[in-house]
Amino acid sequence: MSFIFCDGDTHQIVDILPDRRKRALFAYFIRFDREVRKRVETVTTDMYSPYISLFKQLFPNAKIILDRFHLVQALNRELNRVRIRIMNEKRHKDGKYYRKLKHYWKLILKPSESLNSTLYKDNKLFPGLESEKSMINFILGESPELKDVYDKVNALRTSIKTNENHKLTHQILKYLKDRNTDGGLKRVLKSFRNFLPEIMNALNHPGRSNGPIEAINNNIKVLKRIAYGYRNFYNFRNRILIKFKLLAKKKHRFHTPLPKAA
User: Fold this and answer.
1) Domain membership of residue 162 as a residue range
2) What is the DSSP code (8-state) at residue 43?
């Protein structure tokens, strides 16, 4: 339940706090002078409204950026949920189609523009030679509901990938008005609409993400497993800071000094 944050430019850990609740974070950051906090330009976070409102209060001049990985993850989750629901409906009605939905789930979640349409090969669930594109076309052709969600999710993911602000905004509002849009996808799009300014900031700053934090967290989990846990949080915190500061000097990755407000 701890809270970790790093510098957006150097990706070097700034501090690790024992409590990630809103009150504890406010008490920590409010100690910095307001003029110093005003110099913070961007804050990258996930789609968690308490943190977003807190960061807006603490860093009045900062642009709040939503990590695009969480946007794509939310869309993929809804596409996969529809696939599983239709798959379970077909379990005893159409065993062949059920097996196709179950076996080729990775292809369904794969971006449509990345599907291979030229390489044909044998597939155990299809007669003859088929490409990835032709298999997906067959699967979607058997379920208009899945095809509708698939097309909308791919259009949204493409707009996020290509940083098309106006197109993404238009798609979100258009799909929300569409009566045929799946209920789960509408729920995700309503969240996108509520966080639209932060999503636009993410598309305007494609170099900002939570990727470095996620990589650091993976290293910390390995450290915890090797050490069989730490009884004292501050010993654990110091061990993490020592590890990553030594790693930074060894690889010569960090060249800019840390801002005082970070």
Assistant:
1) 71-195
2) E
Tell me, yes or no, whether 104 and 174 share the same domain. Answer: yes
The verdict on 167 and 86 lying in the same domain is yes
Residue 200 lies in a domain: no
Distances (CA, A) of 19 to 1, 185, 213, 242: 6, 33, 17, 20
Q: How many CB atoms lie within 10 A of CB 167?
A: 16
Residue 205 near residue 193 (C-beta atoms within 8 A): no
Phi-psi region of 219 (alpha: psi -120 to 50; beta: other; left: phi over 0): alpha
Q: Are residues 122 and 174 in the same domain?
A: yes
Tokens of 142: 């058997």
Model pTM? Answer: 0.84
Positions in the chain whose pLDDT score sits under 50: 251-262
155/104 same-domain check: yes
The per-residue pLDDT for range 126-149, each reduced to its tens digit, is 988 999 999 999 999 999 999 999
33-60 burial code (b ≥16 CB/10 A, e <16): eeeebeebebbbbebeeebbebbeebbe
Tokens of 92: 């005893």
* Residues 95 and 187 reside in one and the same domain: yes
